[in-house]
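G., the chain you wanted modeled:
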Amino acid sequence: MLNRRSFLSTTTGVVALPFVRPSIVSAVAPAERLNLGFIGLGRMGMGHLGKLLGNDRVQVVALCDVVKERLDHAKSTVEDRYGEKTKSGKYRGVREFGDFRQLLDLAGIDAVVIATPDHWHTIPSILAARAGKHIYCEKPLTHNIAEGRILVDEVAKSDVVFQTGSQQRSEFSGYFRKAVEYIWNGRIGKVKRVRIGVGGPAKPCDLPTEEIPSGTNWDFWIGPAPMRGYNEILCPKGVHKHFPQWRLYQEFGGGGLADMGAHHFDIAQWALKMDTSGPTKIIPPEDSKAENGLTFVYENGIEMIHNTFEEDIKADCVFEGTEGMILVSRNGISSRPESILKESLGDNDKLIMPSTHHQNNWLDAIQTGSHTICSAETGHRSATICHLANIGYRLRRELTWNPLAEKFVNDYEADQQLTRETRGNWII
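Predicted structure as tokens:
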């Protein structure tokens, strides 16, 4: 966090940059490129792969997925892209694996991108950290709160660079960063309430069992989760271009609440300067069947409400203060009164060092030894909000949370929701 004068001095080289802007990072010689491995090659993984194949600071050398068709498709994508740069038009320098542990054992891998279903985020991240690989892992960072603390500790011990895939901190025209800066500088006065618009909580999986497609390692897809029969809704056949609905089921994800909540609650935590903490009360709605209206209360009295809006103030994130409000979404930012955003930030205002590309922010940090804009600790704390909400909806009673100890206060039943037994040998 810098004021404007400090920010201007960093861009002229007077002091060290905590985040290096992509425009000032020079091209990297082939011998100095980071060797990347990809774990998970569904819709999100292929999106990351497509972007990074065009980045001259990296070389994609290894791929992993439990569905053979996706693995073959990703390999062809890499070979076609890199083949364009060779005289022969051919390239054969990428390895493929069905087990991410074999990828992590591959000599020369510098970093990995993890874009698996949520229940598979933590174990590959931990093993990658232990192997000394830099990590970019999709959000929500964890499937439960306890595994998040284990992951954060492992990353700290390994000293690798970690980026959580909460891209709203870097991208979407800087709308979210601007909202945070204006809130930090008191433009809406003292924050009283935050409203977050995301989907509902997760539910137990009740899908029927279908025949496992050839080329799909279903046992590995299930991994640490409770075993159940295959269903195409959870793991689509072959190559697909949609986001699978494993997200809706508590065995594998956190519902719509955690899917987009890991983005929007993350912005709220950022704006409230709670990146290393969280709320102290979780209050479910009075209607025992309602899937919105759960309220978090922070120690300072600020309330954060899940998916309950006045008719005329809907947005992804709404920040209400004593002097006005800011409404921000991926497609824009506004304020009430409008004058709040019309007045530019001044020389002595607090600014966030800009990150306009989330993947480049990660690569910058690896190359310069600086921090990413969404660390493992930050990603864990934002995911924790989603998990607390799901627990609140499941138990349907007020809960008291200790964000320092990361436990509920005198509540054995609620504490049992902080983790779950892992299946088979997938113990971390």
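The chain has two domains: 2-168, 173-202+256-346+375-418.

Shout if anything looks off.
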